[in-house]
Amino acid sequence: MTTSNNPSNIAYASYDQIPWFRKRWFAIISILVFIPAFLVIAFTGDVYFERKGEIKTIPGYSKFLVLGFFVLAIILQMA
User: Fold this and answer.
1) Residue ranges per domain, the chain?
2) N or C terminus of the chain with fewer C-beta within 10 Å?
3) Is 47 helix (H, G, I), strand (E, B) or coil?
4) Sign for the pseudo-dihedral over CA of 65, 70, 73, 75
5) How do residues 31-73 score in pLDDT, each as one tens digit?
């Protein structure tokens, strides 16, 4: 059996065990302040949130949605 240090393979028992930079509140702040920070965090592992007592991850398409907006903003600034 092999183990990986990839954060997405870790099963957290409670929301308190999740690192602060992998929580949804930090993802929202990083999108508003510095989008590249969010992209690095999102594409190197999961971003978690708690709903009705269950730990969930943001869907993969939302990562690409933010990436698309970021690329579009850069293209519009260059024009």
Assistant:
1) 7-78
2) N
3) coil
4) negative
5) 999 999 999 999 999 999 999 999 999 999 999 999 999 999 9
